Amino acid sequence: MSDPWQECMDHCIAVTRKAGEMIREALKKDISVMQKSSPVDLVTETDQKVEALIISSIREKYPGHSFIGEESVATGSSSILTENPTWIIDPIDGTTNFVHRFPFVSVSIGFTVNKEIEFGVVYSCVEDKMYTARRGKGAFCNGEPIKVSGQEDITKSVVLTEIGFKENRDHFKTMMSNIQNILTIPVHGIRCPGSAAVNMCLVACGSADAYYHIGIHCWDMAAGAAIVTEAGGVIMDTTGGPFDLMSRRLITASSRPIAERIARQIQQFPCGRDDEESS
Ligand SMILES: [Mg+2]
């Protein structure tokens, strides 16, 4: 039987490439920055334009499908995941990087049916790296198969995370003490590249051994989850439980021992859920 979602994936890759070209063009011009939820939560006209391009192009071809797009949710659209075929879109993952022209900027699109991730596409557009994965068919970067490092010893690993300003002092302290708890295992190093989707792809291709993040969103990780899983990686909740796309919590790693060690090493702080109305 032919693969019913392959055509969607092909369309996704084409539209993601077009979106990436738009972002590269925008990087050559002045970038005007607006604030969203806080002084460090940034958005630009390009985020909004790219999301509009992606959604209109997909909706024209697949009018019955659903969408969860970062910028649409920011302006009041629902982020409840249903069984309907759903495109989960981050038009620019790494907006702060984009604003500063720090070169990890990506377009991330994941696709779910019956709440299962069927495929993911991440285009790291400054590097011109197109990461793709279809469920059960492996993960690729620019058409070449990729796999995780396979490292099982956390003391020989590079761990990715993201740090940023938090209004809540206790949450901020927990975030910083988690960094300390990981660094003092010890590990080879911690890196914060600034794009969650790229971070997941770096684990998928073996350039890093793990990535954890509390407060991430479904549009940051839907595509990456497909890519890292198909590359042989492990994915779970930061509590050590099963991965939940809407939970805003993620550990992904090259192996189960590393993922479980990180889960034991870090403490949680509340960050709400993506499918809560008032998260
Ligand atoms: Mg974004």
Automatic annotation (TrEMBL):
GO MF annotations in UniProt: inositol monophosphate 1-phosphatase activity; metal ion binding
Xref: SUPFAM superfamilies: Carbohydrate phosphatase
Keywords: Hydrolase, Magnesium, Metal-binding
Pfam families: Inositol_P (PF00459)
Protein residues bound to Mg(2+) 1: 70, 92
UniProt similarity note: Belongs to the inositol monophosphatase superfamily.
The protein's name in its UniProt record: Inositol-1-monophosphatase
Organism: Paramormyrops kingsleyae
